[in-house]
Structure formats: structure tokens, C-alpha cells
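We close this part of the discussion by returning to an individual protein. The sequence in question and its C-alpha cells are set out directly beneath this paragraph:
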Amino acid sequence: MNTGYDTQRVTTADNVGISFRVAGVATRLTAALLDLLVLGCLLVIVSLLVIAIAAASTGNSSETNTIIVFSLLGDLLFAAWVIIAVLYFTVSEAISGGKTLGKSAMGIRVIRVDGGTATIGEYFLRSLAYIVDLFGVGVILMFFHPQSRRLGDLVAGTVVVRERTPVTLLTATAPAPVYLRTNDPGPGIDGLTHLSEHELSAVRTFLSRPGLPPTQRADLAGRLAARLLDRMELPPGAPERMWPPELFLERLFLQLAPRADTGGPPPLPASGPYTGPGAPPPWTP
């Protein structure tokens, strides 16, 4: 079952729906060109070896015999090229779960239309169909087919999809990135000993949400900064109370994070200060 030009949705035997992003024509053609480069190198090597062997075997033969041998050699080379090409695609996809070198480089692979892994027989059928697809049939079918399937895919019941990004424990548990306008922690802030991991987590959460509307962000920063300043027992005339709330929170995070066994604050992006939605001009010293 498909849900559009970009998605292939299938339902497993357990009635679980799975969606795959279908690889586009441009991506598939790029992968095919990469595979042809690899295949071309293999064919050149094989051709040179066969020609060298044929030349050595006909060194003392008559001119007529040499012509006959090399005419037969042309037919043998063509047959060898076809066999090598079919074996390259079949074996590569069979041992790597639907990927060739070109497909791996482009992040795509072959699956069955029901979402399962194709068999070696199905890989062989779609590889054999390259003989016809190379005459332009494959490109035309991919251009007009909703899931960009060529003749080999239609014959073998397969579709080429984009690889899913693997979810690891590290990526699943990694904290959201912190957006800072400056990496300058500023002068030392008194009263940090009154704060715990709970307050650091609250500051980190605020600094990890760049998409808030400017007015809402400023209000939230003011209320959070006021509570933290009171928790730190800073006097009314303390310099920290004169800082803009967001500047105070950023400097607080930069000074508090190294104390909390978190590995310190994350580095700023190489592109410079944060300039995301709702960001005011960078802080000035």
C-alpha cells in the first residue's frame, strides 16, 4: 500500500504499519552512475586480461586464425560483460540487504513492496532487467511511476527506498543542544553554591528552546532569573541583578555547568552566535 509519491507504507503480518521514504529518480541515477564506474573498472581489467591471453595464444597462428579468434573474442567479451554486470548487482544486493556500493553511498536500498527483504532470485531478476533498462526503458518508467520503479522493480516486486537513520542509545538520550549568544562566562557570580542540579536543568531547558516568541521568551527569562537570584541570596544592589535576564542565565549556565560533573557546557556552533527565531542582537560586553 502506498500513500503518495514520496512514501511507501506497508502493513506487516502483525498489522503494524511501516512507512518508507521512496528514493527519487535523481538519487537512483546518481547511485547507478557510481555503480557503473565501479563496474567499468572491473570490466576493463577483465577485458585486458582476456585480450592479453588471446594475443599470447595466437602469437604463432596464421592471420586467418587470428582474425577468427578475435572475432569470437568480441562475442565472448560481450557475454562476459553481461554476466559480470548481472552478478555484480545480484551478489552486492544479496549480501548487503539490498545495497550496492552506489546505493550505499547515496543512502538507499532495495526492499520488497511488502517491506520485507528481497530474495536472491528477486535480486537476480531486477539485475537481469538492467539489460533492457539501459536502453532508456528504466529511466522512462521511473520518471512516470509514483514510486520511481523501473522495469526490474516491477518484475521482481521491489522498490528502492531511503535508508532509515539508526537510533542509538546515545542519540536517544542525548540532551537537547544549548543555544548561547556568547561563550564569555563573565565575572564570577556569587551564590552558586546555593544552586543544585535541579536549577541547572531548568536553565538548560530554557536555553534549549530557541523557537519561543520574543515576548514569551523575555517574560520566561525574567521570571526564571528572578527566582534564581533570590535562591542565590544576592543583595538588591548586586551587579547580576542589573544584567539582562537572558545574559544572566547564559553566564550562570557557563559557570554552573562545569561544577555539576556534566563535562562542561557544549561548545558554540562554528558558525557563530545563535541567530535563530526570536533572537535579539548578541550581548555586548
Remarks:
- The longest helix spans residues 25-57.
- The two ends are 59 Å apart (CA to CA).
- The chain has two domains: 7-162, 175-260.
